[in-house]
């Protein structure tokens, strides 16, 4: 049984969901169907992943066949950076809803605190961005608030927001963000951010919990440690008779966060789901927490090309 975390209105998000970044069209539909069969009820999607249509078909088949009810599912999607201008937000959300074949999302997130020109899918040069003055985060957020008011998404939140960016939004928003989805694994515990989230009732979702080993080569650096081979993690796994991946996922769930591992492999889907019921003891949690070294596998350096308004200082503070 997957534990849940509660929103202020009583809605509950399963603490473990299926990530879908890099799950290619042609394989993602089968992965979603197998995940549903195994008992996953939470799916993490995004327009930029380019696979929402196939996920939508898989969800529609499962709902249509009676295998699962819409209200038993938790579906998150994200607004891409090239739709931050206030008139672009609702059309982007409506496209995601059409692709996913849904009337509403459970959660809609601003994917990054970064704005690109509408015609740019992924920036290659500084001129591809809109500056924070040209596309203020507060205006993008106000459009998300309108989407929530209209019932198109039941909850709204952000992603890749540092403590400083999150605090700024908390200080000014009419509807406070309810989730912040960020990278987190034992090498990047983000304790300050987690504390801030807890203080304001913001649910913390951990992405890339396994170190994102399949991320594109352009997002990798030569010195990344192989997270699932870390001796402390392997030793805790051996002690409990579980895999290193399960140790990592159990750590995230046991510290009260939501976690969204990606897999398209049936045996791993099952293994990852089972990790949500693993209880690590205080000693294990302390040993894992001691690994914290502020190491990001997804450091956002790809936004920081020469002349970009979105420096690493802007992003992470
Ligand atoms: P993960 O850390 O989830 O790692 C995914 C990789 O691990 C895949 O190669 C997968 O292989 C492999 N894997 C999965 N389970 C196991 C296992 N039990 N044992 C060994 N290997 C395993 O990386 P992601 O970066 O994909 O992060 C997860 C999700 O978080 C994303 O898919 C996305 O939904 C979200 N995310 C959000 C971001 C944001 O900006 N908001 C940024 C990054 C991620 P295989 O699929 O072949 O089984
Ligand atoms: C730039 C990568 C985004 C994944 O969610």
N-to-C CA distance: 38 Å
What is the radius of gyration? 19 Å
Instruction: Tell me the CATH architecture.
Output: Alpha-Beta Barrel
Q: Could you say which structural class the secondary elements and strand pairing correspond to?
A: alpha/beta
Write the layout of secondary structure elements.
Blueprint: E1 4-6, E2 12-14, E3 18-19, H1 28-38, E4 42-44, H2 52-64, E5 74-79, H3 86-100, E6 105-110, E7 115-116, E8 129-130, H4 137-149, E9 153-159, H5 163-172, E10 179-183, H6 191-199, E11 203-207, H7 231-240, H8 244-254, E12 258-259, H9 266-275, H10 282-289, H11 312-316
Helix pairs in contact: 1-2, 1-9, 2-3, 3-4, 7-8, 8-9
This protein binds NADPH dihydro-nicotinamide-adenine-dinucleotide phosphate (NDP) and 1-butanol (1BO).
Features of this protein?
317 residues; alpha/beta; TIM Barrel; eight-stranded parallel sheet; two-stranded antiparallel sheet; 11 helices; 12 strands; 15% strand; binds NADPH dihydro-nicotinamide-adenine-dinucleotide phosphate; binds 1-butanol
